[in-house]
Specification:
The chain has helices spanning about 15-25, 65-80; strands at about 1-10, 30, 35-40, 45-50, 55-60, 90-95. By secondary structure, it is an alpha+beta fold. Strand 3 and strand 4 (about 45-50) form a beta hairpin.
């Protein structure tokens, strides 16, 4: 499995996390709180974490193509909710199994 992470500076991280999870809840398995979220998409898994300063997006996918597609679809959807601000995504790659596997409560 391949992983990628972006820490996106924004004071509205919790709002965007919740909007994204609610948006996809009718089609995909989701779980979220004010500060953590998980979305199981066909391309892979998206985990979100919100702080007062940033939205952290962790993605896991089977291969490079799926990871690239997942980055694109998640970023496009977050940008829809953040239309009043310009977000910066600096994606970094991570080896499988290096992030915390934290399950948000429902």
């Amino acid at each position: 499995m391949l992983q990628s992470r972006a820490v996106v500076p924004t004071p509205h991280a919790s709002r965007y996390l919740q909007q994204l999870c609610k948006h996809w809840a009718h089609r995909f398995e989701t779980a979220f709180t004010d500060s953590d979220g998980r979305i199981a998409l066909p391309l892979g898994e998206t985990r979100l974490s919100a702080s007062a300063e940033a939205l952290t997006i962790d993605l896991t996918a089977r291969d490079t193509s799926d990871l690239s597609g997942l980055r694109d679809v998640v970023a496009r959807h977050v940008e829809r909710f953040a239309f009043r601000e310009t977000l910066r995504y600096d994606w970094t790659e991570a080896a499988s199994g290096t992030r915390d596997a934290k399950e948000p409560s429902q």
